[in-house]
Amino acid sequence: MTRPASRINMIDYQIEPNLTTDVFIDVLVRSTLAERRPVDDRDTIQGMLANADIILTARCEGRLVGVSRAITDHAYCTYLSDLAVDRDFQRQGIGRQLIQRTHEAAGLNTTLILLSAPDAATYYRHIDMTKHESCWVIPRQT
To answer: Could you state, in order of their start, the residue ranges of all structural domains in the chain?
Structure first.
């Protein structure tokens, strides 16, 4: 289902530190990010929310249609760990707004960093983010 472009004006963005686990999981599923998040492990999801420094939401008529979750020191770097937009609301600028507003909340003096899902790599280039060639990870051990 595609929403009319005019609905973009009806998006309410806000910092929402008390976002509930169920609502967060629901938007992860509707965005496809659930494929790469432990949505079946409620304790982990609750910890992800409880320990985030910034949770910024996008709502349309009260319904959560997008979320960004970041960890930051507000001085040097901001790690944007989750960016999810409901598939029905994609391609309307919501993701770009969530990134910009998250960066503003953390401080524009910080470097914003994110790891892209493989299918989203072209999106970040499209919104003028710079690709960094060196990233190293130690995977989660469960």
So the answer is: 5-126
On the question of pLDDT at 135 being above 90, the answer is: no
**H or E element in which residue 15 lies:** strand 11-15
Question: What distance in Å separates the CA atoms of residue 46 and residue 138, rounded to the nearest whole number?
Answer: 22
Closest C-alpha among 52, 55, 58 to residue 94: 58
**What global pTM score does this model have?**
0.86
Paired tokens of 39: 């949505």
Structure tokens at 25: 């999981």
Residue with tokens 């910034």: 54
Q: State the Cα–Cα distance between residues 138 and 142, nearest whole angstrom.
A: 12
Location of structure tokens 């929402």? 16
CATH of domain 5-126: 3.40.630.30
